[in-house]
Amino acid sequence: MAEPVERPSTEPPGTSGGGIAARLGVRGGVNDWQFTAVSAVVGLALAAGAVLAAGPWDSGQRKAERDRVTAAERTGGAHHDGGDPEGPAPAPSAPAVLAALSAAGTGPKDAPAGAARDLRAVLDPLLENDALGSRRGAVVIDTATGKRLYGKGADVPMTPASTVKIATTVAALGALGPAHRIPTTVSASEDRRTVTLVGGGDPTLDKAALRALATETARALKTGKAPSVRLRYDASAYSGPTHHPIGPNENIAPMSALMLNEGRRDDSVKGPAARTEDPAGDAARAFAGYLDKAGVTVKGAPAPGRPAKKSRTVATHLSAPLSGLVERALTNSDNDIAEALARQTAIAAGQPADFKGGRRAVTARLKKLGLPLKGVNIADGSGLDREDKVTAALLAGLLARTADPAHPELRPVLTGLPVAGFSGTLSSRYTSEAGGTGFIRAKTGTLTGVNSLAGTVVDTRGRLLAFAFLASGTTAPTEAQKALDKLATALGAGRR
């Protein structure tokens, strides 16, 4: 039986936060927001930053795809509707959130004695919704204090679906830092008769980048008057199984350290699409064509191989900073980037760049953050593997860490979360009926029988709350999503 497939948006998110500030008449914008070490103002600063710096106008989501793509049950895919191709209107809730923050005073209020009781009164009935299946897990944390305000089934390991990408991206940022870039290089042999295209694991390598590498390579080779070359390609940075455990499907390309446009056969298609079975070979053949256009003839067909001894690098392309890749992976629920980030984390840890190495490296990074890992199993980077098991406590704890001023390197996770009703995988959720539009940011997760939502929301006290809601045994995905959306909305505005 077919299940809905995770449907990422068509455009990667940007990093500028000036849009929302301009639309709301707020001076400054994202560049004016900074972390502060003074605990009395951390919550308010982060809450304001969550609204301003990560507002719905900074993500570049203007042409989200409308159609759902379905795949077989074995793909383990999830679904998310596309957004309005004309672009969102300003979030009606944003001014109200800012007004609430302004009225909150100089800092967040400590949770009153009855706060936990109040949340139970609000959330417990919503968690009883039959649409949430047979098992539920929920945790809410005040990010300013690190205090758990609510927990139910908090430490029960459950299948997270794509919300596991939160763990993947936190680990990658912790291991490599937000400024890290993934290189793709070209090496030339000492006699300049052999060049090797070397993949470093950047799944976002596109035709423009490959063309630029060819131009730079040709320029370097022509100084030595090389009339023609043999072309090799090297994807040895990755090891292990080529395919994800779910097998070949439209949600993810074969694992390769060298690929063009995430291995899509048609580079005009975004989101789920037919994928090549030879990502590295296809990239090399495209590169050969660009070399030819740049005036360097490639003799014979490109062949796999490593650079010859005494080769030197003649051209380099660097990916977007890791911060941008993290935001794109979270906003669009990009499986290929998520798996690449797990492997980059493995490489940084000295582990094999495969599924097992990624699991060990990501788990080790989470352990360093002091988070609860009992029963947790990080089987992959994307959440497509049903062997993934996490707890609501872990997901909420990870999100709280991203808002911790002691970990500014993790902030791209916070800014990469989709905005309710505006961007990425939340672009068509949180309608006016559901509420929550514009002030909830969250990562979605959907597999057959599994629905999850984990993110942040600014409440009416001006606190930035991290939450995680997991549901298993669901039978109606749309109704389960609505139930999750009501939970997050109730957290932020007290509306149910």
From TrEMBL:
Pfam families: Peptidase_S13. Residues 1-20, 57-93 are annotated as: Disordered. Its EC number is 3.4.16.4. It comes from the Bacteria. It comes from Streptomyces drozdowiczii. One of its GO terms (molecular function) is serine-type D-Ala-D-Ala carboxypeptidase activity. The keyword Membrane does not apply. The keyword Hydrolase applies. Residues 60-83 have a biased composition (Basic and acidic residues). This is D-alanyl-D-alanine carboxypeptidase/D-alanyl-D-alanine-endopeptidase. Keywords: Carboxypeptidase, Hydrolase, Protease. Belongs to the peptidase S13 family.
